[in-house]
Structures are given as structure tokens and as C-alpha cells.
Amino acid sequence: MARLPRRRSDRRPPGTPAAPGREPEEATSAPRIIGGDLRRRRLAHQPDGRTRPMKDRVREALFDLLGVTVRGGLALDLFAGTGALGFEALSRGATRAVFVERHFPTADTLRKSAGELGVADRCDVRSGDVLLWARRMPDLPTSARWVAFVSPPWAFFAADHERRAELLALIDALRGAAPPGSTIVVEADTAFDATALPDASAWTTRSIPPAVLHFLEIG
Known about the structure:
- The structure is a single chain.
- The protein contains 4 helices and 7 strands, in the order αβαβαββαβββ.
- It is α/β, with parallel strands linked by helices.
- It has a single domain, classed as 3-Layer(aba) Sandwich (Rossmann fold).
- Strands 3-2-1-4-5-7-6 form a 7-stranded mixed sheet, with helices on both faces.
- Strand 2, helix 3 (104-117) and strand 3 (123-127) form a beta-alpha-beta unit.
- It is globular, with a radius of gyration of 16 Å.
- The relative contact order is 0.18.
């Protein structure tokens, strides 16, 4: 991963910040892959309010920051939705991607995208609640480094949300299970206090409105 300045957050540019806990409006068109072998290809997408595709400019900045880190690695697209992060990683050289999505029709749409893009043999779509991984991590390959994308509904980060503890436990479980050289990326909003992350001082934060990205490199 390209080295980031060791700072807790970048200064937001001038302008009115998004209201705490608010997420950007859902994309009405199918997300497209931005770079790599599958560049400009569109993903299957049903705008029914259940998915929140990461904004193109945020995703582009994210993968610019990751650089060659994704090449040869295993992408974990947790809270997958449209699968934009996992398919982007495959396009940029990840050898395989695991998508986890608890909404069964959305998981079926992920499989459709994998088939249409010609990468079904490199995709593992799992239908289920990824927050349960905090209790018991599944059997995942550890022969290659991971790039794990944790991009849940932003409401989960709220201090009073019933699933916040499970979410933070999931991040901690990933931190403990990931092989050396792995990177964990957490996408949150500006209202989230990053000191709540496990081993908080080890994370690097980059603000890319409307999102804030938190990176942890596993030594």
C-alpha cells in the first residue's frame, strides 16, 4: 500500500459537512469498474434501497492509495452490496474475491455480475451475516495477503447502535486472523470516532468526503 502520512485525519475542504450518520443518496445507475482489466464494465444493480455503492471518486482514491497492494491478494468484500470493491480489486489484479452479503436476492445479483464479467471462477459469494464472523472466523486462505474491505451501513458506527459492538469485534477478529502483509480498510462517516477502532494508534485515516477511510497494515 502506498505510504500515507501518519495522521489521524485530513482536513476537510471548505463546505458544509454531511449531517452525522447520514449516508450519501443511493446511486440510481449501475456502478462501473474504474480501473484495471475490467475498466468501464458495469455491475448488475437493483436500486431498491438496500445497497450503498461507494462513490466512484472515493473508490478511485481508495485504490490509488492501495496501489499494487491488491495484486496477487485475496479481496474480502464484506457488506458487499453490489460488490463494487471486490470486483474492482479483481480487475486490478487480486487473484480471488470473497463477497459476503446477508440479503439473499442481492447475493444472487453478485453472482450474476461475476458471471457477466467472466470472473465467476475467481469469486466466492457467501450469503449470510458477516457480523457473525466476530464469534468465529470462517476458514479463509492465508497463503496470500488479504485486502479486507469493511464498508457497512454507516448507522452501525453510531455509539447507540445495537450492532456497533459486533462491528468493532469483527474488525478486531479480522486484525487477528489476517496473514502478514494484509490491509484492512474501514469506510465510515465523519461522525465516527476512530479511537474506537482496535489498536487505534496503528490506523491511518484519510478523509475523502463524504467518506472517511481508515487503513490498517498487518505486519
